[in-house]
Write a structure and sequence with these properties.
- This protein is of the alpha/beta class.
- The chain has seven helices and twelve strands.
- 32% of the residues lie in helices and 25% in strands.
- It has a seven-stranded parallel β-sheet, sandwiched between helices. It has a five-stranded mixed β-sheet with strand order 8-9-7-10-11, covered by helices on one side.
- α3 links the parallel β5 and β6.
- α1 crosses α6, α2 packs parallel to α3 and α4 runs parallel beside α5.
- The longest helix has 17 residues.
Length: 253
Amino acid sequence: MMLRLMVSGCNGFMGRAVAAIVDESPDITIVAGVDISDGQYNDFPVFKSPAEYADAVDIIVDFSSPLALYGLITFALEKKLPLVLCATGYSPEQLTLIDQAAEHIPIFRSGNMSLGINLLADLIKRACAVLNTDFDIEIVERHHRRKLDAPSGTAIMLADAAASALPYASEYVYERESRRTPRDKHEIGISAVRGGGIVGEHEVIFASDYEVIELHHSAASREVFAAGAIRAAVFMAALKRPGLYDMSDVLGT
């Protein structure tokens, strides 16, 4: 059975990467795209709003921005469709909206669609369980100059992974310019770099008084995120039970 996708943000870099992979997939098709910008890069129809589309669709994949969230959730709730959210930078209010909608439909949300990043998050949890309170944790993320949010959703995702495995409540520190005190043991530092065409790099540093351990992930192309989104879409399309899902559900970890 052919899986019918709607791609939100279809005219952006990631939307076009999703379309390119789907073109090579015999069991998946894109029946509609949604984008506020004009452009026709593929042979499927493109609408300004998901509400403008009236035909059959099985699942929505979103690579747009937090601004599109309300319209997507409204449409998905009305049509009882699973939703794969790949955007980052949601406000606390929007995260609450996602949680509320997940009580009625299946929703997938991840700070990063890369399988490698999700493995990295698992490795961070294991490292924190072993290294415990003897190591300070710093996260450095690097992205292209066009990225709007900072720090990246992936950096927050990795910090959350660390915090979940530590025996104390962590404090996320995003800048140290205003601080004139020694680093507290409970801090997780998060730094953002923007420049050029960097697809995405994340480095997690564990530093003690005697040694330093570094975990590093570098994305070579945007296709890695598009492939992860499609894998999540295939998984989510088979679900009937409402709930909030992430890549650990897809990978079975």
